[in-house]
Amino acid sequence: MFSKALVATDLSPVSDKVLEYVKSLRPLGCREIVLAHVIYVKHMVGLSEALAEEAVPRLAEQERLLREEGFAVTTEMPVGVPGPEITYLAETKGCKLVVVGSHGHSAARDIALGHVPVDVVHRSKLPILVVRLQILEGEPVCYRVVEAEMLSNVLYATDFSETAERAFKYVEEFAQNGCKKMTLMHVQDVSRIRPYLGDRLQEFNEIDRSRLERMASRLRDLGVEDIDLRIPYGAPAKEIVDHVKSHCSSIVVMGTHGRGFIADIFAGSVAHNVVRLSESPVLLIPPVR
């Protein structure tokens, strides 16, 4: 499924937490890692060589950590802007997945990856796993990632768009790789339904429940034992994030772009806000580009 993944690192202690989570990819067939650190030098010509020399020991240490988990690892240290360099490397090195860390909206200190996920998602033709880093109270500032196994309690969020259908293919592969518990969710978007379509909400719910039931039937055939169907009414990003928190979802799977006239815009989208606010990792599946 994800036999080879590119993992982006800024070499900070925080990025070690992302590497800890990468071992969760092994049940999905990941055996090879491209560990990439981008030297970003803005308006400072000649500094890149000094920064690269300084980064080598730390990159080697992170490479060692991954090798100890049984991965074959290669390292890359290009000079440039992180977003474009990460997506270019992932595609040219034959990767099947890009892994980036995100501090969300609350952790503001000691991490340089904050702006990178949005840029990568906007550009990438590959699935992106955004590993959410949660800040812990106290000093010094500490972070952690969700401790649950990736496939233990999967949430698939769909708006029934073509990109969401692509994302469901990965959910099916999760099922084939041993996932036993899933939630399939479609949010009835209050901004689309109110005020003129409120009297048709029950009709919409019946149609969409039938759609989810067909998906659930396919997953049961693949061995998923516990499937929950959810059709809440509200703001999609909030409903998804609230479910993650209240039901301890191990990962969210969704498309990066949905329906509507802003379908090709990621910033401000439902997926963007879920990445910002979710307490669990998010696997984002891009449209065909």
Describe the overall structure.
The protein is α/β, with parallel strands linked by helices. The protein has two domains: 4-138, HUPs (Rossmann fold); 154-285, Rossmann fold, CATH 3.40.50. Helix content is 38%, strand content 20%. It has nine helices and 14 strands. It has helices spanning 13-22, 48-68, 82-92, 116-123, 162-176, 190-193, 201-221, 236-247, 270-277, and strands spanning 4-8, 32-36, 72-76, 97-102, 128-132, 134-136, 142-144, 154-157, 181-185, 188-189, 226-230, 233-234, 251-255, 282-285. Strands 3-2-1-4-5-14-13-8-9-11 form a ten-stranded mixed sheet, with helices on both faces. A two-stranded antiparallel ribbon has the order 6-7. Strand 13, helix 9 and strand 14 (282-285) form a beta-alpha-beta unit. Helix 3 packs across helix 4 and helix 8 runs parallel beside helix 9. The longest helix is centred in the first third of the chain and has 21 residues, at 48-68. It is globular and about 65 Å long. The model is unreliable at 104-113 (pLDDT under 50).
